[in-house]
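for the recovery benchmark. tokens below, seq after
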């Protein structure tokens, strides 16, 4: 007889078949940690578990207290809704379907319109979800729980927001609920061959203090940055190194480098422990880097950090001001050169297609990508994405004024993802075809693509790559019929 299940947590597929490894489902592992002392919890990650449907069927047949689904905007919504429909086909309306994540939190009212959504946990779910599970089990009134949205007697109810958490009070990540080996990879992209086993350990801080007008953080974390203490952050590092024998760590914070005292203290602990482990973080601003002293930079590198990931977005001074990005192009170029002094590999991401953006401004960003790599051989670029507006962000209203017609329901938001051909509008003064060509060519020329597809070094791939590199360097974006083959292949893989 199978073990009883009280709560099942589902991380849906994402349509990304190109990845060699995925990040662990940290959002689910975090809320699960708060439940484990009282409930039997199971996590299903559809991205890495080919047997997920059989497991889900077993769990549904045991009538758990609830089943929760976390879905990001884009294709995960499609797969999540397909899963919710399957659950309903087995159990009808007997098991509450609880949704969480940034999208459902930001668009709670619209998301509740969907028949496969019963309850939404808005914002951080660590405390709220535990209270919800207890209330559902005991058949108590859930309207007394903060940060919930649900339907009752045909009406939508949104309870007040819960206070943001002190991260030192949350329980350790529930690593035992997943097969960690499925999330470990070589780390070549981050560490240039210096690492054999890398693991994304999740977040040691939440939020960001900056006001970038396109960012979900303004709404979701209320522009408030919170970090674990230096000691707890170090313990998170040490646990995964000791338990899973990794020699590379990816810290998935939005902005790890806000509190320089914490950064320095953690670096000191890592140096003292001499773990011989490389690490990097998914977020740092040019602004934060310019505030670092040479001493802190050297300590960070000595502690094992060998790469920084910068969100640059644009090279246009006007666009940078419009999106409230706290840096200038001159600071970007200066940072690019400065990282060479410390052996740091800078990794850059960009955006284009902002409301009112001109072709000249898009071209400025493309030129910056080329120049950064020319001036720093270790610089890496992950491509240029097309801006997509999200409700709750300051730039959203401007997008509406410039022709953005938002999806009318939850399901339609599944069409909004990187590279989607179903999103055919342009908010800028540049037509969408031109933007899509830049996006695709920049990706096929990116270090990320070359990491995912090492065959680019072999014939006939090398011939194609040389041509795309020529296109990119000379900004030949208007007419690119060969991209039709790539797009068809990508859509087949994502379907």
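predicted aa per position
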């Amino acid at each position: 007889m199978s073990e009883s299940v009280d709560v099942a947590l589902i991380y849906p597929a994402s349509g990304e078949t190109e990845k060699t490894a995925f990040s662990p489902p940290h959002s689910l592992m975090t809320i699960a940690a708060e439940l484990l002392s009282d409930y039997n919890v199971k996590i299903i990650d559809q991205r890495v578990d080919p047997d997920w449907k059989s497991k889900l069927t077993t769990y549904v047949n045991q009538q758990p207290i609830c089943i929760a689904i976390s879905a990001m905007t884009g294709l995960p919504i499609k797969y999540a809704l397909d899963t919710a429909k399957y659950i309903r086909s087995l159990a009808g309306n007997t098991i509450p379907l609880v949704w969480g994540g940034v999208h459902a939190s930001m668009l709670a009212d619209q998301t509740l319109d969907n028949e496969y959504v019963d309850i939404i946990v808005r914002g951080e779910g660590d405390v709220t979800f535990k209270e919800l599970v207890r209330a559902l089990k005991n058949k108590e009134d859930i309207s007394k729980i903060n940060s919930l949205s649900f339907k009752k007697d045909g009406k939508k109810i949104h309870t007040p927001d819960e206070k943001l958490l002190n991260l030192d009070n949350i329980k350790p990540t529930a690593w035992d609920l997943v097969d960690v080996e499925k999330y470990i990879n070589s780390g070549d992209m981050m560490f240039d061959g210096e690492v054999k086993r890398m693991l994304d350990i999740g977040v040691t801080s939440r939020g960001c203090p900056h006001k970038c007008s396109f960012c979900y953080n303004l709404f979701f974390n209320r522009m408030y940055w919170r970090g674990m203490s230096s000691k707890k952050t170090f313990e998170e590092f040490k646990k995964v190194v000791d338990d899973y024998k990794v020699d590379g760590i990816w810290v998935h914070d939005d902005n790890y480098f806000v509190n320089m005292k914490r950064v320095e203290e953690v670096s000191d602990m890592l140096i003292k422990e001499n773990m011989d482990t490389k690490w990097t973080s998914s977020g740092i601003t040019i602004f934060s880097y310019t505030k670092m002293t040479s001493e802190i930079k050297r300590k960070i590198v000595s502690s094992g950090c060998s790469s920084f990931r910068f969100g640059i977005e644009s090279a246009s001074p006007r666009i940078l001001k419009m999106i409230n990005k706290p840096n200038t192009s001159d600071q970007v170029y200066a940072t690019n050169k400065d990282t060479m002094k410390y052996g740091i590999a800078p990794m850059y991401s960009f955006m284009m297609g902002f409301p009112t953006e001109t072709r000249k401004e898009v071209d400025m960003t493309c030129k910056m990508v080329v120049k950064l790599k020319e001036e720093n051989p270790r610089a890496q670029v992950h491509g240029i994405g097309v801006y997509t507006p999200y409700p709750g962000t300051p730039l959203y209203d401007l997008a509406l004024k410039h022709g953005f017609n938002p999806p009318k329901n939850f399901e339609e938001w599944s069409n909004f993802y990187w590279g989607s051909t179903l999103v055919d509008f342009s908010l800028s003064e540049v037509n969408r075809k031109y933007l899509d060509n830049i996006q695709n060519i920049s990706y096929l020329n990116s270090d990320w693509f070359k990491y995912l597809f090492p065959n680019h070094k072999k014939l006939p791939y090398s011939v194609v790559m040389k041509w795309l590199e020529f296109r990119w360097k000379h900004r030949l974006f208007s007419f690119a019929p060969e991209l039709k083959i790539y797009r068809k292949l990508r859509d087949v893989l994502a379907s």
